[in-house]
Amino acid sequence: MAFMTVQTAPFDDQKPGTSGLRKKVKTFQQAHYLENFVQSTFNALGDCRGRTLVVGGDGRYYNQTAIQIILKMAAANGFSHVWVGQSGILSTPAASCIIRKYQAFGGIILSASHNPAGENGDFGIKFNTANGGPAPESITSSIFNNSLEISEYLISDSDDIDLAEIGLQKLDGMTVEVIDSVTDYAELMAQLFDFEAIHGLLTRGDFRMRFDAMHAVTGPYAKAILEKRLGAPEGTVINGVPLPDFGEGHPDPNLTYAEELVAEMFSKHAPDFGAASDGDGDRNMILGNNVFVTPSDSLAILAANAALIPAYRGGLKGVARSMPTSQAVDRVAEKLGIEAHETPTGWKFFGNLLDADRATLCGEESFGSGSNHIREKDGLWAVLFWLNILAVRGLSVAEVVNRHWQEFGRNYYTRHDYESIPTEQAQALMQHLENQLSDLPGRQFGGRTVDYADNFSYRDPVDDSVAEKQGIRIGFKGGDRIIYRLSGTGTEGATLRIYIESYQADRNKQHQDTQQALGDLIELADQLAMIHDFTGRTAPTVIT
Ligand code: VG1
Ligand code: CO
User: Fold this and answer.
1) Does this chain's domain 185-408 share its CATH topology with 410-543?
2) Which residues are catalytic?
3) What pLDDT digit, counting tens, does each position of 164-214 carry?
C-alpha cells in the first residue's frame, strides 16, 4: 500500500455556500472534483499529521463512494484516527455530537440536506471544526482560495474499508473506527430531556404521535429513540429507512413537501403531535392536531418553556436567531432579561455565541433550531423538547401556541420562495431593490412608514468579524418587516427568498389565515421588487 501524489488542476466553482459545497452528483463525479475540494480543505487546515476526524453523511447516493475517497485521502495526509458512522451514516447533529464527545480535530459531513438525492440529484460536503460546528467564514474562504490554486492531492491506494462492520480497521497507518450511528447521539438526548416524562406521555394510550423521517437520515435515530427507548408504538415513525434517493422525495419538512404527514395531521382523526425532519436530520417541523407551528414561533415557545426542561433549568444565557427569522423570540428574551442576537442566515454564525456562552438556544425560520448541546441545528432535539413541554404542561400543541400568542402577541410570518430563476434575472432584481434603499426610509405605504432599509451587515460580538450583504431589509415602524435574499444552498439558477412579518398584539386578531393577515405586505413586497417584471413569475414556487 502506498500514498500517491496525483496531479490535478483547479475547478473555479468550489466556493462553499450557506452550508458547505453543494452541487449535482454528476459534478462531484467528475475526475478529481471531490478530491480537489477535500485536499483544499486539508490544505486550509494546515498540518494534518496525527490529527483526528469524524466522517459521515446523510446516506444519499454517492455517500459511501465519497467516504472511501475521503478516508484514503485522510490517511495520505497523515490523519491518525477517523471515526465513521456505520454504513457511512451520521446525521448532521450526530456528527456534531461525536466531534465534541471524542474531541476530534474536526469532521467532514456529506450532505445536501433537503435537496433531492439520487444519481441526478444533489450532493454536498462541508467541514466542521473541533467545536462541532460548521467552519467559520475564515476557513471556508481559505478552502476556496486553496481550491483555486490546487495542483496536486494525496491519496492512498489501499483497499476500501468495510463500512458495515463496527470496530477498528487499519488504512495504511491510520485507524478507522466504524461506530454505531445512533448510540452517542441518543445518550446525549437522554441527558438533556426528562425521558421518564416523555415515556409516560407516549405510552399513555390517549396520546398519538407521528414522525415522518421522509426516507432520509433521521429514520434510525427516530426509531431508536422514540419507539425503542421512549415506548412510542411501532409505526410511529414513518418513511424510516434512509434510501439513497430519499424515495425520490424532497425531504424538506414543510407544508409543501411533507405531504403525507401534513395530510394526516390536518385530517379528522389526526394524531396529537406530528413532526418531520430533513435529509440530514438537522431541521424539524412541528405540528399538532390540525395546527402547524411556524419555526419562528417554535423557537420562541422553546425559549419561553425552557425552564421546564432538565438541561435548561438553570436558565438561558441568551438566544440567537438568523436575521430573517421572526422577532417572536426577541419578545421572550426581553421578558427573561437575556440577550437576543440577530445573525446572518446559516448555522455557522451561531458558533461563536454558543462557544462564548452568550446564547443557549438558536434558531432559523427555515425549520432549524438547536442549543448549546452541539453546534448544529438539531431536528430530533426540537421534537423531544416539544414532547417534554407537552408532557409537563399537559396541554395540546394548539393550547401551548395560543397561550404563547396571548402572552407575547403573534408574529404573523411567511416566506415566499421563487426557485430556479435565471441568475442574471435574480441579480438584476436584487440590484433594483438595492438602488431604492436610500430613498425608502420615511416613505409611507398604506399606513406603514419605512423605519430603515439596508443590506444587513453583521459584526460578530465575539471575534469582531464582519459579514456584509446578508440580505435586504425593509423595516417599518412598529416592527413589520420585508426581507429579500438569494439562497446560498441551491444548485440550479438562483432562488429568491422573501420573508414577511407582521406583529399582532390584539388577541381578537390572532387567528387569521397567515397569507390573508399578511396580504398587503405580500403585495408591497411584490411591487417593490417588481418580481413579475424581472422574472416573469406570477406566484412563488413554495410558500412556508
Ligand atoms: C437555507 C436556509 C438556512 C439554512 C441553510 C442550511 O439556506 O435558509 O436558514 O441554514 O439552508 O440548512 P439558503 O442560503 O438556501 O437560504 V440545511 O438543513 O440545508 O443544512
Ligand atoms: Co439540513
Assistant:
1) no
2) 113
3) 999 999 999 999 999 999 999 999 999 999 999 999 999 998 999 999 999
Q: What is the pLDDT of residue 220?
A: 96
Which atom belonging to ligand 1 lies closest to the Cα atom of 280?
18
Cα-to-centroid distance, 171 and ligand 1 (Å): 35
CA distances from 403 to 6, 190, 303, 307 (A): 62, 28, 14, 16
185-408 — its CATH code?
Answer: 3.40.120.10
In this structure, which residue's CA is closest to atom 11 in ligand 1?
Answer: 489
Q: What is the residue extent of each domain of the chain? A: 3-181, 185-408, 410-543
Contacts of 516 (CB under 8 A, 6+ apart): none
List all residues 6 or more positions away from 159 whose beta carbon is below 8 Å from its beta carbon: none
Minimum CA distance residue for ligand 1 atom 8? 366
Q: What is the CATH number of domain 3-181?
A: 3.40.120.10
How far away, in angstroms, is 72 Cα from ligand 1 center? 30
Q: Please give the grid coordinates belonging to residue 181.
A: 450511528
In this prediction, residue 461 has a pLDDT band, given cuts at 50, 70 and 90, of very high
Q: Where are the alpha helices (DSSP H) in 346-422?
A: 351-355, 379-393, 397-408
Q: Please give the C-alpha separations between residue 438 and each of 431, 434, 467, 473, 527, in angstroms, as whole numbers.
A: 13, 8, 20, 12, 17
How far is ligand 2, taken at its centre, from the CA of residue 134, in Å? 12
Q: Regarding the domain with residue range 410-543, which homologous superfamily does it belong to in the CATH classification?
A: Alpha-D-phosphohexomutase, C-terminal domain (3.30.310.50)
Closest ligand 1 atom, CA of 114?
A: 19
| The three cell numbers locating residue 334 | 426581553
Residue 282 CA: nearest ligand 1 atom is 18
